[in-house]
Amino acid sequence: MSDKENSTKRRSILAAFGLTGAAAATLSVLPGKQAAVEAAGADQVKPKPERGGGYALTEHVKRYFETTRI
Fold it and tell me: What DSSP state is assigned to residue 51?
């Protein structure tokens, strides 16, 4: 690769990081979105197990295992 190609790739990566950071910052300050996220997660909180463990076969875990099947 030439120096010009390396420089272009490096700029593209840095621009992508910058855009991702800007999007995250924008989303974090939007009014109402944080309350909706907190309200959605509040009803899904389960109490801590009394005898250790803590693994639960949730929909998220099931979906992950579905994606790993060949």
Answer: T
CB 48 within 8 A of CB 54: yes
Distance CA 1, CA 4 (A): 8
Residue found by looking up tokens 């907190």 in the block:
38
pLDDT digits (tens, 9 = 90+) for 31-42: 665 555 555 555
Instruction: With residue 47 as reference, give the H or E element that holds it.
Output: none
In terms of pTM, does the model score above 0.90?
no
At 26, which helix (H) or strand (E)? helix 3-29
Residue 25, pLDDT score? 77
Tell me how far apart the alpha carbons of residues 24 and 28 are, in angstroms, rounded to a whole number: 6
Identify the residue whose tokens are 């910058």: 18
